[in-house]
Design a protein that fits this description.
CATH class of the largest domain: Mainly Alpha
Largest sheet: 4 strands, antiparallel
Shape: elongated
Structural class: alpha+beta
Number of helices: 14
Helix content: 40-55%
CATH topology of the largest domain: Triger factor/SurA peptide-binding fold
Number of strands: 7
CATH architecture of the largest domain: Orthogonal Bundle
CATH superfamily of the largest domain: Porin chaperone SurA, peptide-binding domain
Distance between the termini: 35 Å
Strand content: 5-15%
Number of domains: 2
Length: 359
């Protein structure tokens, strides 16, 4: 039971840190102890390293084996195993079988560890520091998420399970350094202009307007069943005749009631009801939405016959909707630029680093 409680607490600390922007793969604590007597078998769902059987006498030396050196900073096998354990636990994934699949997973996790280590080293070179007030605030957030009412209770929760509060603080301090470093090298160098938003809006207006409502009417002329092309010609002739009367100023609704061959809408003056963009066939919707409210379309051929359309109203990106769309676009463009800048910076610091793999 003690092992299970310890795992819950460790996972709680990990989840709390994740809420503070710490990646799930970052190792958080000191070395895990062996499970207490009566611990469940490793096949049960729990972090694989934190619940393994007692280690052989020489296991500590194996676990501390250096597998990578990042500049002058060593990464041990234990750190990789621990990071893999957290990744699988937090993502509720089974441990992959030995072989290529697991090797690729561990390769990705190790790359993430190296990336984080490089960022911390860069922050130290630039003499960035973390204020005590920042640490206090972040520790308070984690304490609250874990349900501890006082700092003393929080520390006792950690110590009671064999965890080291100093190690947790160290990881939090490192994450705050990384956040500050990224803010300096990435966030403050990314901006989105109004001109960029305008260009995106023009290029993607149709997509952004998906879901906006419009109201329209139609008058339908259907070719006779089995009449072939002659039937279509006759339907077009009827459509042209009524269209000329629409242009002459006759009421579209009255003409729909009298002449439309769509029994479902004719009695309502041809009303199609309130529609959302994307609900009609694309060719029909395009024909309707190219109209301005009050305008009528010339005869339009669809798969069922010839239509005359009248647009009653349509929502557009204006006012509050336009403001919301522009804010969404700003977020999209910022994220794109941020990710590009972040990868450029990471590539830059990786290029200057000496990384020695010892796997």
């Amino acid at each position: 039971m003690r092992g299970a409680v310890r795992l819950v607490l460790v996972a709680g600390v990990a989840a709390a840190l994740a809420g503070c922007s710490i990646p799930s793969w970052m190792p958080l604590i000191g070395k895990a102890k062996g499970p207490p007597p009566g611990a469940p078998p490793p096949s049960e769902v729990r972090a694989p390293l934190l619940s393994r059987p007692a280690l052989p006498p020489d296991a500590e030396a194996v676990m501390d084996r250096v597998i990578c050196v990042v500049n002058s900073d060593a990464v041990t096998l234990y750190e990789l195993d621990e990071a893999e354990a957290y990744y699988l636990y937090e993502n509720k994934l089974p441990r992959p079988s030995e072989g290529e699949e697991r090797a690729k997973l561990r390769e990705r996790i190790l790359a993430s560890i190296i990336e984080k280590r490089l960022q911390i080293q860069q922050a130290e070179r630039e003499k960035l520091t973390v204020e005590d007030a920042e640490m206090t605030e972040r520790m308070g957030e984690i304490q609250k998420r874990l349900g501890a009412t006082t700092a003393a209770e929080f520390e006792e929760m950690i110590k009671a399970q064999g965890l080291v509060i100093e190690a947790v603080k160290k990881r939090i301090r490192e994450q705050l350094l990384v956040e500050r470093m990224i803010r300096r090298k990435v966030s403050l160098r990314v901006s989105v202009t109004e001109e960029e938003i305008d260009r995106y809006l023009i290029a993607n207006r149709e997509k952004l307007e998906t879901g906006l409502a419009f109201e329209a009417r139609h008058i339908l002329f259907v070719p006779g069943a089995g009449s072939g092309e002659d039937g279509w010609t006759a339907a077009r002739r009827r459509a042209d005749e009524i269209y000329s009367r629409v242009l002459a100023g006759e009421d579209f609704g009255d003409l729909a009631r009298e002449y439309s061959e769509d029994a479902g809408t004719a009695k309502n003056g041809g009303r199609l009801g309130v529609l959302k963009r994307g609900e009609l066939a694309p060719d029909i919707e395009t024909a309707v939405l190219r109209l301005s409210p009050g305008e009528h379309s010339p005869p339009f051929r669809s798969q069922v016959g010839y239509h005359l359309f009248e647009l009653d109203s349509k929502e557009t990106l204006a006012g509050e909707q336009l403001a919301q769309a522009r804010n969404q676009i700003r977020d999209i463009l910022y994220k794109q630029k941020y990710e590009t800048r972040l990868q450029e910076w990471l590539t830059e610091i990786r290029g200057k680093a000496i990384i020695e793999m010892r796997l």
